[in-house]
Design a protein that fits this description.
Layout: E1 3-7, E2 14-18, E3 23-27, H1 30-36, E4 41-47, E5 52-55, E6 60-64, E7 69-74, E8 80-85, E9 90-94, E10 109-110, H2 137-140
Parallel strand pairs: 3-10
Antiparallel strand pairs: 1-2, 2-5, 3-4, 4-9, 6-7, 7-8, 8-9
C-alpha cells in the first residue's frame, strides 16, 4: 500500500499514513473554518493508530474543542494538522498538509447550511445542511460514518 507523507508549513512536524482513508469530505461549519482559516476544511478520516508522527511530536499543540474533539496544530507555524475524536480515536487529517497526492478525493460537503456566505460550491458532490443521513447511499459509498459512531469532524 502506498504511504502518504504530510507536514506543517515550517517542517517541524512530519507524519506518515496509509493512502486509505475511510472517507474524504469538505466541512463548511464555522468551527472548521476558524481552525483552517479557509472557506471550508477538506479532511480525510482514518483510525488514529494508522498515523505515525515521524518528526516533531513536541511541536504539536492540542486544543480541547469539546469533550469529544481535540484539535492539533504546529506550535511553531500554526498549521492545522488534524482533529481527533476521543471516543473512537478517529483522526480527521486536514488534507492541505499532505505532501503527496492521495488516491481518493473529497466526496461530500457537510454543514453547508452554515457555509461562508461568500463561498459558492462548484462541484457536484452531495451537500448536506448538517451531517448526512446514515442511510444515504451516495455518501455510504465513501465509507463515511455518523458522528455517533466515531466519524465526521
Amino acid at each position: 500500500m502506498k504511504v502518504l507523507h504530510a507536514s506543517c508549513l515550517c517542517g517541524a512536524v512530519a507524519l506518515t499514513l496509509p493512502d486509505q482513508f475511510d472517507y474524504m469530505g469538505n466541512c463548511h461549519c464555522s468551527e472548521c473554518r476558524k481552525f483552517s482559516g479557509g472557506d471550508y476544511s477538506s479532511v480525510g478520516g482514518l483510525d488514529g493508530n494508522k498515523v505515525t508522527i515521524v518528526k516533531g511530536i513536541d511541536a504539536i499543540s492540542r486544543y480541547q474543542k469539546s469533550a469529544e474533539t481535540t484539535l492539533a496544530f504546529c506550535r511553531h507555524c500554526g498549521s492545522s494538522l488534524f482533529s481527533q475524536k476521543s471516543s473512537s480515536g478517529k483522526i480527521n487529517l486536514r488534507l492541505g498538509v499532505l505532501d503527496d497526492v492521495p488516491s481518493q478525493r473529497p466526496a461530500f460537503h457537510i454543514f453547508v447550511g452554515s457555509k461562508a456566505p461568500w463561498h459558492q460550491i462548484g462541484d457536484d458532490c452531495p451537500q448536506f445542511d448538517t451531517r448526512p443521513p446514515v442511510c444515504s447511499s451516495r455518501v455510504s459509498q465513501t465509507k463515511a460514518t455518523t458522528p455517533d459512531s466515531g466519524g465526521y469532524l
